[in-house]
Every structure is written in structure tokens, then in C-alpha cells.
Amino acid sequence: MKTVMEPKRTNTTFAEQPLTEKTEKKPVALDVKHLNIYYGENHAVKDVNFSIDQNTVTALIGPSGCGKSTFLRSINRMNDLIPGARSTGEIQYDDVNLIGDDINVVALRKEIGMVFQKPNPFPKSIYNNIVHALKFNGIRSKKKLDGIVEESLRKAALWDEVKDRLHESALSLSGGQQQRLCIARTLAMKPNILLLDEPASALDPISNAKIEDLIMGLKKEYTIVIVTHNMHQASRISDKTAFFLNGVLVEFDKTDKIFTNPSKKDTEDYITGRFG
Ligand SMILES: Nc1ncnc2c1ncn2[C@@H]1O[C@H](COP(=O)(O)OP(=O)(O)OP(=O)(O)O)[C@@H](O)[C@H]1O
């Protein structure tokens, strides 16, 4: 696996820095230990401990404000952008603590990509949405860029719908297509882990189903962590489910177990809709 430690300076630019050698994938993708996240005085994530296996889909569920998105954003350091946010503890990834001080956040976000609730394509062509970051990272060969565009769009189950209109504006796509384009854009960076923050909640049921199928297919190649408010979606697509409440990880287990025989009463109350 690639590493996200601050790369050694060479005569290439910072953005072009290679992410160093690949070694064998470990069975655990992310190992979270005593993770605490604060916004000023607000203790939003409280002493969370669990590990996420490679090539699985993990659903994060829980009522609004329980810390799901905060936890998700901490994995690729998006919380760094929020004034007053700070974290303690560890998120181990390939023997590197992702919340440590010595992390190259640019490299980290290539390896751990994120897709948000609202599709946010650039106001550029479909093609340029995919190649934008690749060009920034020094890839110039048209043949290579064309290849990555096709590969990413195929993986995101969008190629057949857009292959004849690659140079049209991404904004001309439907919401569901835009979201698959955003997934393709993330896949073009060749990540190991995909973080999805309610990626289908703003979409119609057919687009939602396409995104769910896509996620289930992508886990062969990627480790996926998804925040969802949709219990049916969590039970359909995830292997494991983490239930958060008031910043605490109440229960983490196989999805079947969480939805059929949870160990904690709070989990049962939440999944059966008796909560709040
Ligand atoms: N940018 C921010 N600045 C300050 N506090 C924040 C910020 N984002 C979230 N919080 C606080 O952190 C806590 C957890 O919020 P978070 O958004 O992580 O919950 P969530 O479970 O993802 O909620 P939702 O399901 O509504 O998206 C809440 O108390 C919230 O007010």
C-alpha cells in the first residue's frame, strides 16, 4: 500500500511527489483508537475505538448531530478546514496515524477520497472534471488521460451514458449522473478508501439504486465508509454498521446482527424508529 507520510523532497514539485512504495494490503484498512474530536468546547466524537476491514462497506448510522460526518471527515482531515476543530487519538492506516502532525494532507486525500451529499462537479466538461486533478499532478499525456477518463467512468457506471458527450458541460448531466461523475473523479486519483457522506440522499429512487449498485461493486477494489440516514440502504449495502449516539460509538458489528439482533437497547430503539 502507498504511504501518506510527508514525502522526501526531490526535484519534482510537491503535487507530483510519488506516494512511495506499495506493499501488501493489510486486512485492516483503518484502525481507530481512542479518537476524540472537539469543536472548541463541543466534544463531538468521544473515545471511539473500532477497525474497518479492507474491501468492505461500513455504514455509519445514528441520529442527526451524533458525530457521523465529523468522524468521516476526520479520516481524510477535512476537519482541518474548520476553525477550532481538533482531534486526539489515532486513526492508523498502513502504520501511519492519519491525525498525526506529520501527514501530507494532499497525498492523504488522493488515497482517501471523499464524495459529498450534494453532487459538486466543477463547471467544466465531463472530461475535464476527471482530468483536472490529474493534470495538476503532472500527467500530460493525452493517451494516458483518455485512458484514465474511460476507466474511471466505467468504474462509476457512467461511461455508456456519457461516452459520446465527454466535452459537454458536467452541469448538463442529471443529479444522479453528476454524483456518479463525482465518484469517477475521485476514482481517477486511484484511492484506496472512499468516504461517502450521504451520497444518494439528494437523488431520485432510480439514481439512488444505481449508486447503491455501484457501491456494492466498488468494494471489490476499495474500502468504503458511508454515512447514511437510510436504514434500508445501510442494511442493503453494508457489511458492517457502526451506530453512533451523542458522539459515542454505541455498537459496531456485522450489519445483519445490528439490524436483526442488536446488543444494545439504544441501537434497537434507533433502528426500529422508537428513538426520539
Ligand atoms: N463545522 C462545525 N463547526 C462546529 N461544530 C460542528 C461543525 N460540524 C458539526 N459540528 C457539531 O458536531 C456535532 C456532530 O455533528 P455532525 O455533523 O458530525 O453529526 P452527524 O451525525 O453527521 O449529523 P447529521 O446526520 O445531521 O449530518 C454536533 O454537535 C454539531 O453541532
TrEMBL record:
UniProt signal peptide: none
Gene Ontology molecular function terms on file: ATP binding; ATP hydrolysis activity; phosphate transmembrane transporter activity
SUPFAM superfamilies: P-loop containing nucleoside triphosphate hydrolases
Top-level taxon of the source organism: Bacteria
Pfam families: ABC_tran (PF00005)
Region spans: Disordered: 1-20
Keyword Translocase: no
Any Gene Ontology CC annotation: membrane
PROSITE patterns xrefs: ABC_TRANSPORTER_1, ABC_TRANSPORTER_2
Keywords from the UniProt entry: ATP-binding, Nucleotide-binding, Transport
Sequence ranges assigned to domain ABC transporter in this UniProt record: 30-271
InterPro entries: AAA+_ATPase, ABC_transporter-like_ATP-bd, ABC_transporter-like_CS, P-loop_NTPase, PstB-like
BP term (GO), one: phosphate ion transmembrane transport
Protein name, UniProt field: Phosphate ABC transporter ATP-binding protein, PhoT family (TC 3.A.1.7.1)
Protein source organism: Fictibacillus solisalsi
Lineage of producing organism: Bacteria, Bacillati, Bacillota, Bacilli, Bacillales
